[in-house]
Hints:
By secondary structure, the protein is α/β, with parallel strands linked by helices. Helices cover 51% and strands 16% of the residues. The strands form two sheets. The protein has a six-stranded mixed beta sheet. Strands 6-7-8-9-10-11 form a six-stranded mixed beta sheet, covered by helices on one side.
Amino acid sequence: MRCYLRLKAVIRHVSFLVLGAVASLGFSFPGAYFWTAAAFVGFIVLLGREKNPRSGAFDAFLFGLGYFSSGLVWIFHSVYVYGNAPWFFAALAVLALAALLSLFPACVGFLIVKIRIPAALKTSLLIPLLWTGTEFLRGEWIGGFGWLSVGYAFTDNMLASWAPIVGVYGVSLIVLIVLGSACGVLMQKERLPNRLFSGLLCVIGVLGAYALQDVTWSKSTSRLEVRLVQPDIPVTTRATYETQRKALARVEAMSLAHPIGRPLDLILWPESVYAFLPASLPNSWKELPQKVAQKQDASVLFNAFSMTKERSVSNSLYLATPEGTSLIYSKRRLVPFGEFVPYGFRWLVDALAVPMADQVPGARPTSPVTMAGIQGAVGICYENIFPSELADWFDVGNPALIIYSANLGWFSDVSVRQFSQMSRMRAREAARPVLQVLNNAGSALFDPTGTELRRAGFGAQNLDATVRLFSGSPTPFMQYGFAIFGLFWALLFATTFGFCRLLKCFSRKSEG
């Protein structure tokens, strides 16, 4: 009997681990949100049956371990290939990060068992609420790493039409409520009122998404001819003047190539074209963007380091026009172990001989950025994961276009697909077109519904696109940010326990 119970526990643990790995497939393959949905249904059903809070926490932790280690496997490529680390250390680094992030699901598992409410309400509301609550904390308040938030896997799904109102975490909540409510309806042992309540939630979530599909949040105004230069510059941890010369020569040639169609208005270069501070380079090199702008009679948006104070280096975006060049933005969200060393880990970076120094984050924008005569919002690298930063641009203006410049050559192909999901979600939240210009693959144009219109493949190539600009009042999410999501979350949380109290009152009256 004891062996049987142990075997049963092992099977349960392995099931959670496998379900977590399956849930990550929706972030790795286009349109694969079905696998994420199926895995979360299994997670919700199995977690709802847990009886011991510690077991619930451990099983949810295992689900998170499978979820994050599988979904963040691209980190292995970066640590192993460019971090000079042994393969086993690179694998250990991925598992360590996954284990740290899995503490959030573990909290969900513990609380789900600890809080005593009907099973149908647990699956319909409590699990979705607690998961998205910890997801928000992980992405915005505590962790600052919202990668693999459930809503991103459903960017192609009808339920993502909620994004302009509640944002990506709200989409996560609605997706899990629909999945959990479907489970609650099928619970034959549950009382009829609980199952009806679950069914009502499921219907509201689906019908609301169906209705929102027809809502037009912005309108087309004008067009912009844009060239995204994808130079495929080799990634190296130690740049030299020779590699810098070759990189600039390639970017210049691609930028000056004859455009297809009408003359260009805006030329975009990806992150890391300049590996040195422009001030330390020959004049002909640092003035190259303005030279290109003059020859093409266009604006050039490019990335380079800046030093506004002594020994204070920032990752910045510059805008070159035929008249001159100006710094317009410095990156606010820095990558741990990529752009700064977290407190207490300098010894590790030195031991691995990783050549890096701490950078300085930029400030919140105080005025809109104007490019080629239109207002735009910009970001660098994984800043496209932070909807709050995009909302800051709408606080100081009304951007008609969103641009993200990045270099994902440090990572595997999976990271490009996940990066694109986040850019597309930002497009849906803001109802504005998004351009992402990358170094080696995946430069793309997305329309205000997050639909991919143009995409570059792998290798050096230009992506010339006619961008339809959109204007109108900012979406509710861009106007109020997480306030709507927070209010929505709080109301549903109160509804959960209010409904439980109502059921108890009816039970007492019927018994009396």
